[in-house]
C-alpha cells in the first residue's frame, strides 16, 4: 500500500496526483533556460564572480535535469507516458549521462524497500552520521572534481567491459548499483558532447568545457551528495514513512544553488511517489494540517540536515 494512504484519503490524493503537460513542458524549458541564462550573463559580464556563479547555477540545473528525469521515471512529468519517456530520456537524462530505464528500475526498488536491508540506496545512507572531518573530505573531493572524474572514468571502463559481453551485462543487471553505473554511455555521451558543442558555438570555443563539463564534475557532484545526505542520511532505519526520510526547508538561495524543483520535499514524495514535484508543497501543508508535524522528520535548512548527518566529532 502507498504509505500516503495511511494519512491521506483517496479524495485528497487524487487532485495532488494530477499531472500537467503544460507544467511539465515549462519545467524542462525553465531548466534549460536557466542554464542558457547563466552562460549568457557570464558572456555579458565576464569576470571571476560571474564565472563561479554560472558554474554553480548550471551544476544545480544539471541536478534539476536529474530531478526532472526522476519525475519522468514516475510518469509524473507529463500526463502522456510517451512524453515522459522521450523528455525524461533525451532532454533530461542523456545530457547528464543518465539513462531513464536503468534509473527507474533502481529507483522504484528504493521506494519499495526504503531504509530496509533490500534498499539499494541503503549503502549511501548507512554511512551517516559520520564525522565532520569525513564530511569535509567528501565535499572537497566533490568540489575539486575528484568524485566526478572517478565516476566518469569508472563509467567509461564499465562500458568498455560490457561491450559485447552478454555474461557481463547479465551480471551487471543483477546488481542495482552496478547497473546504474553501467548506463549506456555510448548513447548518452554524444548528447553530453552535443551540449558542449552547442555552448562552444554560441560563445567561445571553451564554453562547453567551462559551463557543462566543469559543473558536471564539480558542483553537480557536490549538490547530488548534499541531496542524498539530506534525504536519508541519519534517518531512522525502519519502515516508518514519517521518520525514514527527511524533508528539508529551502529558501530562494537554496532552491537556486542546491535544491531545484521542490526536491527538498522528499518525505512527501515517498508518501505518494506519483505526485508531481510542483504539488509537493501542497501535500506538505496538508500533512501539517492533519497534526503530523511533530511526527515528521523535518530540517529547517540544509545546514541543519548536514549537521544531523555529520554530528560526530571523531
TrEMBL record:
It holds the Pfam family FA_desaturase. GO terms for molecular function: oxidoreductase activity. It is an enzyme of class 1 (oxidoreductase). Its EC number is 1.14.19.-. Residues 49-287 form the Fatty acid desaturase domain. Keywords: Membrane, Oxidoreductase, Transmembrane, Transmembrane helix. InterPro entries: FA_desaturase_dom (IPR005804), Fatty_acid_desaturase (IPR012171). The keyword Transmembrane applies. The chain crosses the membrane at residues 21-45, 51-69, 185-207. It comes from the Bacteria. CDD domains: Rhizobitoxine-FADS-like. The keyword Transmembrane applies. This is Fatty acid desaturase family protein. It comes from Seohaeicola nanhaiensis. The lineage of its organism: Bacteria, Pseudomonadati, Pseudomonadota, Alphaproteobacteria, Rhodobacterales.
